[in-house]
Amino acid sequence: MDDTRLTTIAQLEQFLSANAQVEFSPHGDDAQRYAHISRVLRRFDDPGRTKRERGVVLAYLRHTSGYSRAQLTRLVRRWQANRLAAQPLVKRYGAPAAPFARKFTPGDVTLLVEMDRAHEDVCGPAIAHLLHRAYHVYGDARYARLATLSVSHLYNLRKSAGYRAQRLHLTKTRPVNNPIGTRRAPQPQGRAGFVRIDTVHQGDLDGIKGVYHITCVDAVSQWQVQACVQGISEAYLLPVLALVIAQFPFEIAGFHSDNGSEYINARVAKMLEKLRIEQTKSRSRHSNDNALAESKNASVVRKHMGYSHIPQPHAQIINAFYQTVFNPWLNGHRPCLFATEITSPKGKIVKRYAHADVKTPLACLAQLSAQGLVRFKAGVTLEALQAQAAAQTDLAAAQAMQKAKAALFARFNTPRQQA
User: Fold this and answer.
1) Residue 234 sits in which domain range?
2) Which helix (H) or strand (E) segment is 342 a member of?
3) Which of 299, 303, 387, 378 shows the shortest CA–CA distance to 337?
4) Residue 127: inside a domain, yes or no?
5) Are 222 and 146 contained in the same domain?
6) SS3 state of residue 244
7) Is residue 295 in some structural domain?
8) CA distances from 243 to 229, 246, 322, 401 (A)
9) 296 and 162 in one domain?
10) What is the total count of domains within the chain?
11) Residues 208 and 74 grouped into a single domain
12) How high is the mean pLDDT in each 10-residue block of the chain (419 residues)?
């Protein structure tokens, strides 16, 4: 940049105001920038200027040289001290003539790798002692330098690129080998009786756990059974699971859950084996394996029970509400969307939800019964289920459920919450 025409402080101020938004990126080396600083200071006779004028010159140099204010202040001070002696402004530091000598060579690193591999990476003091013994006790001259290796520097050598290049090894993630349950998606093949189950926590309050809701839904008919349990330990969960399975009007052939320990344990597996129910669990990286039960958690449990904390002692009365009022309304009067699978022009299976496919789980169960795809339990008939549902209209059943739910929630509210 040729700035020889800038000879006054006013011109420098105009330059700075006109190029305030322009950033200069000097491409020259330090010697060229030092020469530029010396020329500007000599041209404007920096020592003879006022404080304000020296500030303008310094701002101009910061804008054109790329140096910081602190660095420029040091350079201006050096120039003022050496200008009478006619000494140029030069760089006083540089790279060393020769790099520092390395005490430990790549061969020493190789010996350290060999010692670490043989002893399977024991602690640093033990390896340092072994290196010392290799030279002083066994007389191996290769360990002459390593015999003086300190423990702290040993870890530095282990972090070096040469060491890591020789000790690099990759270990694949080891899957959890749990023999309980088969890791695959349910395969109902259009038959009722393959249920999916999931747990919803009602929230904490001051570190105290709330109740747990259990959502169990059939994969084909969407027949759903809700239950509530005080805790997910075996003492509370096993009786409720037996109650959930007993509330289904048809025989259960498959039981699918995620990999939570509340369902993948020996006690649950023993109970399902006794009932001759196949147990499956979700696969890794297959989020849709238990998606039906998880969607019911949002559309049913959270919609009606909310997110607020419910104390654990109320689990029994919630369970009674589910069994006597909520589950009959859920399966006999609440419509569900059923998907129709079609094949797209690209050959993919796409699900479509048509208005004609909206029906209650009981209506879907009737269609499956007509096709011979459902096996009712002993003493349970489709006609009895339909008669129980026909005793109330959909509106009357929903209003009765809402009334019972309001009475239930009134028992949760403490005097502090009501205030």
Assistant:
1) 185-418
2) strand 340-343
3) 299
4) yes
5) no
6) helix
7) yes
8) 11, 5, 11, 21
9) no
10) 3
11) no
12) 76 79 64 85 80 87 85 87 74 69 89 91 91 93 93 92 84 70 86 93 86 94 94 86 94 92 89 91 86 91 91 92 94 91 88 89 93 93 94 94 93 58
